[in-house]
């Protein structure tokens, strides 16, 4: 049971007008974003690098709705819908979210940690590793799906890929100096705060979804379905826009981290619980491979963007939004 469902049972939240639910969800999401920014600032002062923060701690909150859907949503996600929802999440992250933020807050720098300092060089290497693991996870998913079933052994490989990456990041963090060691009590408090933010984000996404469902008479069915499919990228959109306006640059590590939660973690955890049957990939030009090709194309554009050293104009952001629109045209 989600936080929203629990509160709805006590206070009948769904009896409220759709616009009230929508506004409540947005307000709670903004509050959760502010709390996450505060926690990340505290962790950064204790020798956690920007890449580690973006690929481990931020997705604890932004990826929480996806993870809960993968664990508890099996009865609602028949067939291989959980796979396609997470592919769609990553496509939206690498195009629509990226493009919208550049369009709204640009021109921006997107390259991780500019400069030649030791800290900046390590941050760029860490980001390159994260990007490589993102491609590895996507390639592993395609390979495991080719026979028409993501078994529990396949799921273990997907989860193992994610776990190995996080272990590598902890190793690369190194041993912090005495002044930057994170006290256990503070660490527990910050972790509790992040989990609290995750619950707030889960509540806000459910509230926005309930509000949007109330718009069913105002929005055509197909358009409403497309809007509901974008709910999984709401948390990182709000959080990244807040961080971008504060720092003056778009940190892509949070997006990479959220994509790593979707593929391979969420799909892996979901398949560990119940193996996922999917369409057999008869060949590279098979209709069943279309979603994977679209994912690869958007990831390629995102990877090229991440390597750009200078400022990125709003036109590039508009181009990424158009790329997302083209994905829907091709579907």
Automatic annotation (TrEMBL):
<feature type="transmembrane region" description="Helical">
    <location>
        <begin position="156"/>
        <end position="174"/>
    </location>
</feature>
<feature type="domain" description="Sodium/calcium exchanger membrane region">
    <location>
        <begin position="19"/>
        <end position="170"/>
    </location>
</feature>
<keyword id="KW-0472">Membrane</keyword>
<keyword id="KW-1133">Transmembrane helix</keyword>
<feature type="domain" description="Sodium/calcium exchanger membrane region">
    <location>
        <begin position="191"/>
        <end position="330"/>
    </location>
</feature>
<dbReference type="GO" id="GO:0055085">
    <property type="term" value="P:transmembrane transport"/>
</dbReference>
<feature type="transmembrane region" description="Helical">
    <location>
        <begin position="91"/>
        <end position="114"/>
    </location>
</feature>
<feature type="transmembrane region" description="Helical">
    <location>
        <begin position="288"/>
        <end position="305"/>
    </location>
</feature>
<keyword id="KW-0812">Transmembrane</keyword>
<feature type="transmembrane region" description="Helical">
    <location>
        <begin position="222"/>
        <end position="243"/>
    </location>
</feature>
<feature type="transmembrane region" description="Helical">
    <location>
        <begin position="48"/>
        <end position="71"/>
    </location>
</feature>
<dbReference type="GO" id="GO:0016020">
    <property type="term" value="C:membrane"/>
</dbReference>
<feature type="transmembrane region" description="Helical">
    <location>
        <begin position="126"/>
        <end position="144"/>
    </location>
</feature>
<dbReference type="InterPro" id="IPR004837">
    <property type="entry name" value="NaCa_Exmemb"/>
</dbReference>
<dbReference type="InterPro" id="IPR044880">
    <property type="entry name" value="NCX_ion-bd_dom_sf"/>
</dbReference>
<feature type="transmembrane region" description="Helical">
    <location>
        <begin position="20"/>
        <end position="41"/>
    </location>
</feature>
<protein>
    <recommendedName>
        <fullName>Sodium/calcium exchanger membrane region domain-containing protein</fullName>
    </recommendedName>
</protein>
<feature type="transmembrane region" description="Helical">
    <location>
        <begin position="186"/>
        <end position="210"/>
    </location>
</feature>
<dbReference type="Pfam" id="PF01699">
    <property type="entry name" value="Na_Ca_ex"/>
</dbReference>
<feature type="transmembrane region" description="Helical">
    <location>
        <begin position="255"/>
        <end position="276"/>
    </location>
</feature>
